[in-house]
Design a protein that fits this description.
There is one protein chain. The protein has 16 helices and 17 strands. With 462 residues, it is of the alpha+beta class. It folds into 2 domains: 169 residues, Restriction Endonuclease; 251 residues, no CATH class. Helix 1 runs parallel beside helix 9 and helix 4 packs across helix 6.
């Protein structure tokens, strides 16, 4: 009798890993990629590097091979991901690369999907993964410190450019044979029109319906001699009041109005009416109501510690950087400000929420869009104009958008503002995100896109 372990010896493992790498290379080349580097010939971190000039220009794909069983939280894997991230961030946005991880057996595969599958990923899983990378003692202290110096948004961008494949030798062989039988990965194939996927689904938008409204509106006459221009100049725009045609409209009763508003209203003329029925009466009322609702939202942001501003006719909420000794400020578990002290002109970056109001026949909607602002002092001294342009170019690369990151930012602000909870008082509003039901959608990932294109090609051929 005999017992032979073909997988257990170091030489056998090395040979199998080499054969696996060869098969991954065949797979990539079958998809049209050109190999430019391999670790045996160039050494270093990356197992293989590829380019696809006809389709992707000079954007590379860096391939990591995992022949042995791979855990998502294995220290070696976390070390490699940390180093890939640092290489990724060392490059300008237009020169960054994609990462492709090929694993023969990815243990607990559904946990991998929580990070790398756009349909299954969660903010909590990504945050945990980031923290494990930052704490991994297989990385040097300098590497860990540098990783922590980048905001979570950059790490999420890196993950969005990382693609994981669970594939053994036989599955790779089958795919290679399939690719070689058709021309789906030839350059001219990608110039053909691909049909959208027919699939009923719901999409979350950044449009939020206001479902519960402030209850009472107070209307009074302006005091004699008061001009509307002066009133607007002195009125805080986060106070829900408006001046028009010698009238003052307010969601606050006279006794709760700040002095900057109270001095312009004749208290003996104030009357109460139901806000909802009043705004539905005519379009002019609806326009005033829109401004009052916006002030309610901005005021709630101020109650949470935000600064509210009117910047280029847009209304933003953002947090000040209150501790000059701290590098970052976090709220609800995520970074909202960061201090950049290196260089000749130190500055602060603030994640902000741009708030708009839409009105349709008396029905109001919020529009929420995350943005970035810069200040020189961490508070109200904003950096604007030509000085701000290079900063926006640095932190807002235009290579492509990232819907998942935008949705995550909106959800974070949602938590900060406590929306989705019941109304807190008569002045508060109730809200509900608008869902979009669609019958057609773009492909979920590259495999689905390729299958759709291949099916269209086969239909034309038949």
């Amino acid at each position: 009798m005999a017992l032979t372990n073909l997988l257990g010896e170091r030489e056998a493992l090395a040979k199998n890993s080499e054969i696996y790498g060869d098969k991954v290379q065949e797979y990539m080349e079958a998809m049209g990629y050109y190999i430019t580097e391999t670790s045996p010939t160039h050494g270093g971190l990356v197992d293989q590097k590829y380019e696809l000039p006809e389709i992707r220009g000079d954007r590379e794909v860096w391939v990591e091979l995992k022949w042995t069983d791979q855990r998502r939280h294995g220290k070696k894997f976390l070390e490699e991901m940390g180093k890939y991230f640092l290489h990724y961030m060392d490059r300008p946005p237009e020169k960054r690369f994609d990462v492709a991880i090929f694993g023969r057996n990815l243990e607990n595969f559904k946990e991998w999907r929580k990070i790398f599958d756009v349909t299954k990923q969660t903010d909590e899983a990504i945050q945990e993964f980031y923290e494990r990378v930052c704490k991994n003692d297989k990385l040097s202290e300098d590497h860990r410190r540098k990783i922590k110096s980048y905001p979570m948004d950059d790490f999420e961008e890196f993950l969005s450019d990382t693609h994981v494949y669970q594939a053994d030798y036989d599955s790779l062989l089958m795919k290679i044979e399939e690719f070689e039988k058709d021309d789906r990965f030839k350059p001219d194939f990608f110039q053909r029109e691909a049909e959208p996927i027919t699939d009923r689904s719901e999409l979350t938008t950044n449009l939020v319906e206001i479902t519960e409204y402030p209850e009472t509106l107070y209307i009074g006459d302006q005091v004699e001699g008061a001009t509307q221009e002066v009133a607007f100049k002195l009125r805080p725009f986060t106070v829900p009041t408006w001046f028009k045609s010698n009238k003052v409209y307010s969601l606050l009763p006279p006794e709760e109005m700040p002095r900057a508003v109270k001095q312009f209203i004749d208290p003996d003329t104030v009357e109460e009416t139901r806000f909802r029925s009043w705004v539905e009466a005519d379009q002019g009322n609806a326009d005033i109501g829109k401004r009052l609702i916006r002030a309610v939202v901005l005021s709630k942001g101020e109650d949470r510690g935000c600064i509210a501003i009117n910047y280029r006719s847009d209304y933003h909420l953002y947090f000040p950087h209150e501790d000059p000794e701290a590098e970052v400020r976090e709220e609800e578990g995520r970074q909202v400000t960061r201090y950049f002290g290196d260089g000749d002109s130190p500055f602060y970056r603030h994640h902000s929420l741009r708030i708009g109001i839409l009105e349709y026949s008396g029905q109001y909607f919020l529009t929420l869009k995350p943005a970035i602002l810069f200040t020189s002092n961490g508070k109200e001294n904003r950096i604007t104009g030509e000085q701000a342009k290079p900063l926006h170019d640095r932190f807002s690369p235009s290579r492509h958008g990232n819907n998942r990151k935008t949705r995550s930012r909106i959800n974070h602000w949602w938590k900060i503002l406590d929306y989705g909870d019941p109304k807190q008082d008569e002045l508060d509003i109730g809200t509900e995100p608008v869902m979009l039901k669609v019958n057609k959608r773009p492909p979920r990932d590259t495999d689905e896109r390729d299958d759709a294109m291949q099916n269209k090609w086969l239909g034309e051929f038949q």
